[in-house]
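Discrete fold record:
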Amino acid sequence: MTSVVKVPPLVTVFGGSGFIGRHVVRALARRGYRVRAAVRNPNLALHLLPLGNVGQIQPVQANLRMRWSVDRAVQGADCVVNLVGILHEGGRQTFNAVQDFGARAVAEAARAQGAKLVHVSAIGADAASRAAYARTKAAGEKAVLDTIKDAVVFRPSIVFGPEDAFFNRFAAMSRVSPVLPLIGGGRTKFQPVYVGDVAEAIARAVDGDVAGGRVYELGGPEVRSFRELMEEMLSVVGRRRLLVSVPWWVARLQGSVLGLLPNPPLTAGQVEMLKTDNVVSEAARSEGRTLEGLGIAPQATEAILPTYLWQYRPAGQFTKTTLA
């Protein structure tokens, strides 16, 4: 009698080589899924291969601006995860092209395959926002849910963890600068969410354990102001730095100038976004559209930051902490 070998489901992850993507690919591989990491440059995704068994993870070329490459990357997939987003525009990588047109392209390709769809947006997505980033995030969400009614949409607050672009950036700045800027006085509130918790939520959605057709907001256990986050970071790295308030008009001017750089540290749009708190809404909390509502206990910054920011401590103060 011939036995039939069951092939594990295939999940295409757009943006699989990015910060969140690496953790999502690891979480899916541990569950036994086959993972196709769809990225613009597959050679830069080879670091994903050791996260799974031989042949389990396959990097493929895809660009959300090129519909044919999106269709090819989704071919044969049982589920599709879209993690692609940009913080600033550059060349043909515009907010409209990536976060609106690109999101619709992925959704339409998934629908054509009959695949489930998990789309990652961001807290702050708002069709009425003055910031193009927020408007196109909202447009992408609408395109996704208009195309696939039972798609799952996640909106994380600022995501932290090893190799993040937030705490690492300011910790590195604290090495060389005696001051750190607080735009608008540093009063903007955030709800930092651990990248591993975000990846777990996405993996559960792929498993089919998250109700579709809804927008979930993912935040950590604590709401902190930007000033408080900088103070915590400085405490972890063991440095004292002067925190200087930067008026909104000065920050906007700086963003307008710095935004002309190829890889700007600040843009006018980002300054505009900082005028609104980046936290889970009361509606999401009351309706259970949160990590806690999904049965995930979010991890706090104080438990995670020391595991990777130790490298920024002054010479002679290195104390590496590892996760259990």
In short: The chain has a mean pLDDT of 93. The domain at 10-160+191-222+278-299 is CATH 3.40.50.720 (Rossmann fold). Residues 95-113 form the longest helix (19 residues).
